[in-house]
Amino acid sequence: MPNGKRIKVLIVDDSMLFREVLSRGISTDSEIEVVGKAEDPMIAAEMIKQLQPDVLTLDVQMPKMNGIEFLKTQMKAHPVPVVVVSSVSSNVFDALNAGAVDFVTKPEAGKPDGSGNFIAELLSKIKIAAVTKAGAGKAAAVQQPVKPIKSSCKIEIIAIGASTGGTEAISDILTALPADVPGIVITQHMPPLFTKMFADRLNRTCKMEVLEAKNGDLVQCGRVLIAPGDFQMKIKRNDKGLFAECQKGEKVSGHCPSVDVLFDSVSRLNNQAVGIILTGMGSDGAKGLLSMKNSGAYTIGQEESSCIVYGMPKVAFEMGGVLKVVPLGKIAEHLITVLNQNG
Predict the structure, then answer these.
(1) Which of the listed residues 109, 136, 145, 216 has the most CB atoms within 10 Å of its CB?
(2) Contact between residue 65 and residue 40 where contact means Cβ atoms under 8 Å apart
(3) Model's pTM, two decimal places?
(4) Which residue ranges make up each domain of the chain?
(5) pLDDT at 125
(6) Of all residues in the chain, what percent are helix, strand and coil, respectively (each to 5)?
(7) CATH superfamily to which 157-341 belongs
């Protein structure tokens, strides 16, 4: 915490064994203190009033009241930043939509190194959650109706990068865009399996086709490609046009997939492009967005008050890579304006 105090965490999980695993793991960090453990949301609601935790860890599948319903009521009564700790499930996206800051997947049984990696990731996300505002950006996330895109639009590709809070920010933007938007490529920090679920979820709610990218997939009008978890995605050009190259690789700027990798690849295409950097902790994407700007792309950074975490857009702005700062709720509208000005 900025004031030097330890981060107070309340664990909410119906498994007594897993509550103890979480408690022991979290307690290994001297900057974090477990102040309570609740076996169901009803008990947790009372403990929140008494203990005033800085962060909750929350399972989404529990008795009496599931974690999604708890989030919806809790965010209104006593907003507390929440990190969802759950098995692999599309319910995670419902939790993020209900106001959770981020999620960590429970380790698979039988994996000797799973628990250690899991705890390290959880500790990191608890610290990120502790410096966010619960439900931040939600009030500003209502996109305005957008105008049609001119058929003469010369923009060839739109590249978007995000991390913490990005799934809902991306959804807010994409669902407001028309079907004939230029090809969109996205890197959202997210593990394998979830990138596919995220793409499938967006495909059901957006006017465009949304896919988890595969090696060789074409970037084309009306299509959105999501970088797959644990792969670096670059955009390249051949005689058919722009396409995605997805390869296993080392982390870049601390991530795989990395926003910097995507943005840098787009900057090398000598094309008409737009780059958008959204909410997230750290600096991934800042250098790549600057490269895009220097190559002639139009660049947008999400405005601070509408970010869950104002990290990536802040660094990009300070480096000089952002041409226009826009609140989340107006990004789709501004993007259409930019596209039509390039037509």
Answers:
(1) 136
(2) yes
(3) 0.90
(4) 7-130, 157-341
(5) 95
(6) 35, 25, 40
(7) Methylesterase CheB, C-terminal domain (3.40.50.180)
